[in-house]
Amino acid sequence: MSPDTDVAAIVEELTLAExxxxxxxxxxxxxxxxxxxxxxxxxxxxxxxxxxxxxGVRIPGETSxxxxxxxxxxxxxxxxxxxxxxxxxxxxxxxxxxxxxxxxGLNVIRVPHNGRNFEYYSEDPVLTASTxxxxxxxxxxQDVVATPKHYVANNQETDRAALDVDVGExxxxxxxxxxxxxxxxxxxxxxxxxxxxxxxTPMSEHRRLLTDVLKEEWGFxxxxxxxxxxxxxxxxxxxxGMDVEMPGVSMLELLSGGEQGGEDEGGDGGFSPxxxxxxxxxxxxxxxxxxxxxxxxxxxxxxxxxxxxxxxxFDMAQRVLTAAEDVGVFDDDRADxxxxxxxxxxxxRRVAIRGSVLLENDGVLPLxxxxxxxxxxxxxDEAVLGGGGSSETTPVVETSPIEGIEERAAGSVTVAxxxxxxxxxxxxxxxxxxGEEGEDGHGSEPGEEYxxxxxxxxxxxxxxxxxxxxxxASEATDxxxxxxxxxxxxxxxxxxxxxxxxxxxxxxSGPIEVPWREDVAAVLEQWYPGQAHGHALAAVLYGDEDPGxxxxxxxxxxxxxxxxxxxxRFPGVEGTVHYEExxxxxxxxxxxxxxxxTYPFGHGESYADVAYRDAAIDGxxxxxxxxxxxxxxxxxxxxxxxxxxxxxxVDRPVREFxxxxxxxxxxxxxxxxxxxIDDLALQRYDPADGWTVDPGEYTVEVARSxxxxxxxxxxxx
Length: 717
Description:
This protein folds into 3 domains: 7-326, TIM Barrel, CATH 3.20.20; 344-541, Glycoside hydrolase family 3 C-terminal domain (Rossmann fold, 3-Layer(aba) Sandwich), CATH 3.40.50.1700; 608-716, Immunoglobulin-like, CATH 2.60.40. With 717 residues, it is of the alpha/beta class. The strands form 7 sheets. It has a 6-stranded mixed sheet, sandwiched between helices. A 4-stranded mixed sheet has the order 1-2-3-4. It has a 4-stranded mixed sheet with strand order 8-7-5-16, with no helix packed on it. α5 (125-140) links the parallel β3 and β4. The protein contains 19 helices and 25 strands.
């Protein structure tokens, strides 16, 4: 805290009405913030502004750096890069004169169909925790409050606002809560609660998880903010541990920038999502504002009746002011931040490259710059910035695949779309007829004809064919299946039949099916790469940079994931989803079953050729020498897994990810790598005894992926 601001003294001076105003959103006079707390002018408490931002700061009508999706950040397996990324997000937030960034999202990827997976980090809690904690440290370092979300078990978008989650305590602790605890330890000033309920109690009212676990057990001193329109009953929410209700205005007023609605002092005005005509895809994923009992209207009476202790309201206000003071909201010399700088543009490019995962390569990559290239795909003339929802970001500059390849290639580049543009959808396009074919910014002309055959013919005439394809994903809706939409699989197959040097570049929100993998020469996964899409694609394809990423999620055939084929597990039955797989999510599930993944967790190829030597245990870490025995510089991601003790009556995973180190190695050089073993990989949670490390011998694996172990070591505990 600064010496000039005494939060406790300010709280002592607050009236009850003023304290309540610090716990509920209102209209931003500038119509810019996603959420707005008006402050207390009488006591010189300034407004506090909250803004969306997992992929970049989102303010309607304004631009900012469009960074790659968080899934690409985690694919780098590099906490230092994640911290740098978080710091850039924080600077952009300050550059927009905002105080609280509603990021990062860190729900563990349980359901591969989840439409919001691109906003998250991994199917593994250790990778999620290390990446998210680093991002939080970066955000907070720039005098911005980080807001990890969505606490907790918001692992699908279908029925998210009404769904109840039935999850065992062990899985809850080991998988879903562990990353949030890491972000609290990293200094997060706020936490956003989720829409769903858990074990019969709405998260907005869940005293055990909001108060007992988050605030008391973990020592979280910041504030808990609701997801927008997620609170239900005001008194149970306040006494349960909710500190701030958002947005505190009507749905119409929120979406119109404060120009309409709100005539009932922040109530819903009788408005519902149906009145706004949201796209049908979002029907099951949108909250109902009519179910919200607002803090502003309800808390005064609840305090008077003794339903909410007066001191609890002042605790809520103090938590908000403490988090704000910690990042300098009261200070005159607070950092100004910066938006769309050259450094941020370069970071966006670097993260996109470092997050690129080379899934297959039979030697066609890297390309020879003299190759004649057929660049094919329905969206090759636009950068894939992200999915739909609150993370949508508008950049100042962006590079498409066409621009990136044409700028880099020395040979000819022939472009063929093959198919009409694959259309995404936005939560903010309600009632909007814009974006019709030919007027969508894809560079296509009205009436343009698309032909798979013409694309195949272009491929046949080229030295190499690069097919760029994408999926479609968004907040508030889940993907129907894991196939590429709109005949893109057919396009790939036709091009591969015409040219045996076909490279497929994927832009997806998570795992997909790849039925054509044996027919193509290389497969590159770039997730949603953001504004630097074209430059990052060219840098990797031509070998200017080694693809530095590894899979943070398992790729497998549909029907083999633990949530597939069982409605109880997904999407749920009678309003409840049952996490009956326990801790066996992602690679843990595939290790424990006969199902074989297409590409295992941690998989990714390199242009370098590496050898692992002299692996050893050094205290609580693994050391290993990694030699680049090839003739190209490269990047290796050394991964460590722990095979836990067998315990009678307890199902343990075959292996648990324990940490990784990403290191660049020049050709002919040897890098000495040290990877600390994360405590979570050695522990299990016992509902009776709490966190437990079973004594005995543990096998520690040094690996290139969960399916490629290079050395085994022994660790005594």
